[in-house]
Amino acid sequence: MVRISYSALSLLLLLSSSNVSSFQLSAPSLQQRNNIVAKKNGDQPSLTSRLDATATDVDNEKKLQERKKELLTLLLGSEGSSKNNENGIVDPVLCDPVTKEQISVVARGNNVVLGGQESNNKGITFELTSPSNKYSGSSDTFLNLLTPVDEDANDNNDNDNNNFLQRATRQLAPLIPPQLRSVLSVAGIDDSYIPMRDLFTSPSVSFAYERGWRQGFASAGFPGADREFVMATEYFAPVASSDGAVVVDMSCATGLFTRRFAAKDTYGRVLGCDYSDAMLTEARRRINNADGIKKMKTTQLDLVQLDVGQIPMSDGSVDALHAGAAMHCWPDLDAAISEIYRVLKPGGRYFATTFLSTYFSVLNTQNDDSTPISQLAFQNFKSTDTLKELLVRNGFDSDKTSLEVLGAACVVIRAEK
User: Fold this and answer.
1) How much of the chain is in helix, strand and coil states, percent to nearest 5?
2) Could you tell me the CA-to-CA distances from 211 to 207, 215, 279, 324 in Å, in that order?
3) Percentage of residues in the chain with pLDDT exceeding 70?
4) Distance separating alpha carbons of residues 70 and 75, to the nearest angstrom
């Protein structure tokens, strides 16, 4: 089995792109630096200087092609065949959400042209397999590590139809009478509906999220996406400064912060993760249209569908994890925070924003302490002490955890493993 990450594939695609001549494998030579100085002084480089610079470019191009050949050998075998490696690539971060076993990834599709000029990483399907389960994904959408592929289904259409019914039922659940939900359950369709989780599976919510919904959080004291991004990256800087750093944007919604982390182009890998396929679909659409993403040279970006209570990532595999305006939507907080603590590397950092319950005072008048979590619209965080206790009992050190309140009801959390 080939033990190499998606990053190698991403780098190979980069090396194969039409912009390959601009990729620098080494620092400018002394002669090139002298030419730069000469240009600044208004002088023209000599013919000898220009010939030396050309020779350096040819040398860099040769090194570039040698590096591409090395990656082809790793991915495709010594013969350099275009046949996909059937054993797959072992992902260094992602794993089976239930068993935590390693996952191997196989890419399939007519557009998997690793050495060609036209390779754009679109139209590729992924098979993600652990010893216990199989999952699927697509370069056009996301990696689904929430629902295993049903191996017993008659064909892919049966599996797709069942997933569609599950999604439709959750999106329409508020409009379905309870007695009818029971009928659906008997028919084998999941009738469970948890408002704080499933509200965001609606396409109408994903459509509205960056069209006014998220901006409305300013009334609670949220600093705005640009400022929160700066706050998060400043906190992450000591542990996520290397070009191999792994940064996770948990409950990423439409990719508001995922795009910013990726466009920064200093991290090795950015994973935008959410429970809602509607949110991830909108995130992919916005990523495809983002100019900053198209210019990335360092960062590998993946979208992953998952449950934050069963994060499909290996122990100690993540340098930094961000969760913006998210924790109040997690049904099982203890499971979520303990999972976040598990996947962070020693010294890894968690940055989050969420609401105090005062912001939901109108909704809270309809509930009391006896109301089941599954019936609440959002989690009720009555104070920062409540949140700090949650973090500490799930692994974080009290001395390495800080919380501050912005405005009326926005809590900013910083916690280090």
Assistant:
1) 45, 20, 40
2) 7, 8, 13, 17
3) 60
4) 9
- CA 174, CA 318: separation in Å to the nearest integer? 36
Helices (H), 16-144: 30-40, 47-76
Residue 115 has a pLDDT of 33
CB 311 within 8 A of CB 97: yes
d(C-alpha 367, C-alpha 386), whole Å: 18
- At 255 the three-state DSSP class reads coil
Average pLDDT across the chain, whole number: 77
Provide φ and ψ at 69, rounded to 5°. Answer: -65, -40
Alpha-helix runs per DSSP H in 289-348: 291-294, 333-343
Task: Find, among 105, 89, 88, the residue nearest to 143 by Cα.
Answer: 105
Is residue 185 within 8 Å of 261, Cβ to Cβ? Answer: no
* pLDDT for residue 130 is more than 90: yes
d(CA 200, CA 66): 47
384 neighbors 392 (Cβ within 8 angstroms): no
Q: Are 85 and 106 in contact (CB under 8 A)?
A: yes
Contact 366, 337 (CB under 8 A): no
Q: Which residue has the tokens 């994890």?
A: 321
Which run of H or of E encompasses 353?
strand 344-355
pLDDT one-digit tens code per residue, 262-307: 999 999 999 999 999 999 999 999 999 998 888 888 899 999 999 9
pTM above 0.90, yes or no: no
Distance between CA atoms of 74 and 15, rounded to whole angstroms?
15
